[in-house]
Amino acid sequence: MTNKIFAVFNNGCMTVISFTSRVFNYFVKYFSSKSVQYFIGLIIGVLAIIVLFLPSAYVVEEPGPTQDVLGKSSGKYVINVDNPNKASKKAVSAASGLKPHSKNGKLLLVTVNTSGVPGYEIPNIYAILSWFDSKKQILPREVLVPVNQNASDYKKETNKQMTSSQSSAQVAALDYAKKHLDVNVKNVKVKMHIDDIGGPSAGMMYALGILNKLTGVDLAGGKTIAGTGTIDNNGKVGAIGGIRLKMISAKRDGARWFLAPNSNCDEVVDNIPQGLNVVSVKTLDDAYKALEKIKAGKSIKSFKTCNAKM
């Protein structure tokens, strides 16, 4: 009886094993066929395409437009100065050591176009392709944007930074004009207008633009001079982001001189576009005196420049 039961059990096991083997061989044969391989490849390809076009967790920075702070934006002057005490060009020139120039120069603020921030999302494929472009910079989004910040909050934050930058530029410029240029700034009113530019990095150039408008003297001496840097009420120039890309923008738009925050020198070194002279500045006074020397035709050897740290 026991032998019969064992025989039946053994036959059952063999039947199950045989069936399982046949099923396995069937699937091996089925999935080895070219049609199924093509189907699997198609599925993988579709999934890969979907992933490539999903929103990226990275941002892409590239050289942006420049703007002459002495010129107009959308038909309006970027800087308007109402100075009821305005001295003559001759008087201001005597006080500042500068002479009026027949050709008006340009003072360019420089920007970086940033894609991938809230409201300007990019697909993964754009971030991947940008990695191979030397004129672009790839950063994790959280480096620039707080986690979970939406488009509305991001825009409010950058606009707030720009407004604060303009306010500090006015305070620093008027204080400098009063203390160093002997200009009466009582009842002076400054209005500023700029479109689609956020952040604090144009502060120094705004301050220089205000001084230019306040005195009526062409501080650029007929040249095109670009620069970047935050500024506080005391005239201290601070570091900014994307300076390598901003130097590219400056050179592209005709600048031959560039004023850079001293605190950005590590990034400036080895990244200066050919033909662009970069001057290192720590304060508004440094920047103003640099403009004086540029206007006087001094060579780059006479300026403070960025040097590599040993």
UniProtKB/TrEMBL annotation:
UniProt superkingdom: Bacteria
Alphabetized InterPro entries for the sequence: Lon_proteolytic, Lon_Prtase, Ribosomal_Su5_D2-typ_SF, Ribsml_uS5_D2-typ_fold_subgr
Gene3D superfamilies: 3.30.230.10
Any Gene Ontology biological process: proteolysis
Reaction(s) catalysed by this chain's protein: Hydrolysis of proteins in presence of ATP
One Pfam family per UniProt: Lon_C
Matches recorded under PROSITE patterns: LON_PROTEOLYTIC (PS51786)
Residue intervals of the Lon proteolytic domain: 196-294
Keyword Transmembrane helix: yes
Family under the similarity heading: Belongs to the peptidase S16 family.
Annotated PANTHER family: ATP DEPENDENT LON PROTEASE FAMILY MEMBER (PTHR10046)
UniProt-recorded name of the protein: endopeptidase La
Phylogenetic lineage: Bacteria, Bacillati, Actinomycetota, Actinomycetes, Bifidobacteriales
